[in-house]
Model the fold of this input.
Amino acid sequence: MFWLFAALIFGASAPAVAQRATVETVQFYADSVGRTMKYNIILPSGYGTEEAVNRLYPTLYLLHGGGSNFQAWRRFLGVPSYALDYEMIVVMPDAGNSLYVNWAQTDDDRLNAWEDYIVTDLIGHVQTNYRAVEQREGRAITGFSMGGYGAITVGLRHPKMFVSVGSQSGSLKTARNAARRLRQGEVARAPRNYSPEMQARRRLENPLIGLPGFSSIVDRTPNGQPFVTPEQADAHDPFNLVLTVPLDELPLLSIDCGTDDRLVGASKEFAELLLDHDIPFNYMQLAGGHDPGYWIQTMGYFMGLHHEAMQRALGQRPISVRR
Done:
C-alpha cells in the first residue's frame, strides 16, 4: 500500500482541466532544519497587477502526508485548479516524514526541528517575500494524513498564528499512540525491518523533489524519536491540546475523513470530544478511503471553507444583526 501511494505521488498527474493557476517553486535555507528546502506557492490572479500592488492576501498552508512531498498537491490533488476560485495565497511546503514536530532525539547530526521550520522559517519566508496578511486572521493551515495531524497539532500549539485549522484523513492519534507505547516502556516509534529490495527502493531519489540529501525516503525520514517521554507526546496530542486553548482563542477546526478510511475512527472521536465541550467545528465524511480519490473530491470544499473563515475574520463578509 505504501509503495502504491508513493508511486501515485511520484508519477500521477492531476485530472486535466481547462484552466490552471501558475505554480512557483521557491527554494530557501531553513535554519531550524539546517538545510535548503523547497515549497510551491500559488499567487492569486491579479497579484502582479498595478491595481493590486498594495493589496495583502490571506494565506492557506497545505501540509503533505507521510511518504509524500511538496509536489503532491500540485501533481495529483489538483490544487492549482481549485486555487483559481479564491483570492488567496496557497503555500505547499515540504517536511519529509517528520510528523511536523521538533524531534526530541536525533541519532545523527541533522537538525529536525520541523515544527519550528513551519512556524518560523517557512511562514517567515512567505511573509517577507510575498504580500501576505501578517495577522492571525489571514492565515489558515490544513493537510492530509500525516499533514492532517501536523496541521491540527501546529495550529493548536500556535493558536495565535492561525484562524482556521483543518485535517483531511488525519492521523490524529499519532501522539496519543506514542504516549501509550512510552508508558508501556516501549519507544515512541519502533524501528521497522525492510527487505533488501525495499531498502533499495527507499534509497532511490525522487527527481521531482530535487533536494540533494533529501530526495529519498531514507533521507527524508529522521533518525531518532519524535518523543522520548509520555509528557512530550501528550504535549503534541490534539485531544489534549484542544482543551488547553481558551475557547475564545481557538481557531476554527475542520475535520473530514472517508468512511472506508482506517483513520475515520480517530476523526469521529475527535469530533465527539469537540461536541462534548461545545467547541465550534466543521465535520464531513464521504464515501472513500485513505487515497487521492477521496482527497480530490474534498479538496475544493475545504479550500473554500478556509478561505471563507479568513474572509470573515478579516471583516470581508457581512455580519448578521439580531433583531
